[in-house]
Design brief:
mainly alpha; 188 residues
Length: 188
């Protein structure tokens, strides 16, 4: 899993570029930080149902699993995604994302007779890998709208949520967070 995690980290910055438009790196971090702050204060889902939030949590954990470092669940990525869908994305994007979750659950039921959240992890991974291959084919064909699919949104939000979370920053990237600010030219 280390190579997969390293690949996700390497692609995080590249994948985010077309989706943020004019946001700079600091803006991306600030939006992520604020979304995590709101997620901590939120006691129930805002954009997703409880069942959808559970599916997002399972999917995000398969994308960035717990290894010797925290996984997506530890970083509360599903809560981050819920806040982003409620506060950042418009209704059409939310609807597309939620329709994708319905599709994900339908695929799971067809494959195993159970919803996605209730499937065995190996089967969840199989379905997500199939969706990832389908997305890759669309991207390689330069199909218009490939990056706006619900699965592309899920991957993007999972990476953004993870790498702007305290566990993602401190324990995965090993960045020491220092409170306050540094003023190198301050008089003494």
């Amino acid at each position: 899993m280390t190579s997969r995690r390293e690949a996700v980290r390497a692609l995080a910055g590249i994948a985010a570029l077309p989706l943020f438009g004019k946001l700079g790196a600091q803006d991306v971090m600030d939006v992520g930080r604020r979304a995590h702050e709101h997620a901590v204060l939120t006691t129930s889902p805002r954009a997703l149902t409880a069942a959808e939030l559970e599916m997002v949590s399972e999917a995000a954990e398969r994308i960035i699993p717990r290894t010797d470092t925290p996984g997506a669940t530890d970083a509360r990525v599903a809560d981050f995604i819920d806040v982003m869908l409620a506060e950042w994305y418009d209704a059409a994007d939310r609807d597309r994302f939620k329709a994708g979750l319905t599709e994900l659950d339908a695929r799971a039921r067809k494959a195993s007779g159970r919803g996605f959240a209730g499937m065995e992890r190996a089967r969840q991974i199989e379905i997500l890998e199939t969706l990832d291959r389908e997305l890759s084919v669309r991207r390689q064909a330069r199909e218009e709208g490939a990056d706006e699919t619900w699965f592309a949104m899920l991957k993007h939000l999972t990476i953004w949520g993870y790498y702007t979370s305290r566990p993602g920053i401190v324990e995965e990237l090993r960045v020491q967070l220092v409170t306050g600010r540094y003023e190198g030219n301050a008089r003494y």
